[in-house]
Amino acid sequence: MSNDDLIKQIHQAKTCQIKVGETHGFRDIWVVVVNERLFCRQYAFHPKSWRSALLEGQAGYLKVSGTSVAIEGQIPSDLAEMMQQVNDAYLEKYVERLNYYPEIAKQAALLAKHQNSTVELVLKDSHETKRG
Quick check: 64 and 8 in contact, CB under 8 A? Predict the structure, then answer.
């Protein structure tokens, strides 16, 4: 499956799953698409979270619709410029289009602690994509 196809599936999916490191299984996560880029935010703020492990460079995987792909995480250098677009993407996807836990989505979009946890997910080469 191409990265373009994966991005389309992620845009349509209510949730994806993320796994980082070897000690945890896949966990549900909300991912939004802005300009063909993937963004997610932390909801629970634990010191040994998927977010901190991903930013430390541990192996990460994102799963959508049964397809898993290797990912890397980064704090985008243009986050300040992208922030409003990411906020709007959360509101559009989870409040307006999917109506999926809209009150939680509003928090994810509008509260500073969630905004400040924004991570860009970068898909690695599509040959690392697998079903399962």
Answer: no
Count of structural domains, the chain: 1
How far are the Cα atoms of 34, 118, 120 from residue 87, in angstroms, in the given order?
10, 10, 13
Examine residue 131 and state whether it is found in any structural domain, yes or no: no
Overall pTM surpassing 0.70 (yes/no): yes
Domain containing residue 20: CATH number:
2.30.110.10
Q: For residue 131, give the H/E element and its range.
A: strand 130-131
pLDDT tens digits, one per residue of 108-121: 999 999 999 999 99
- Give dist(CA 50, CA 19) in Å, integer: 7
Q: Is residue 132 part of a domain?
A: no
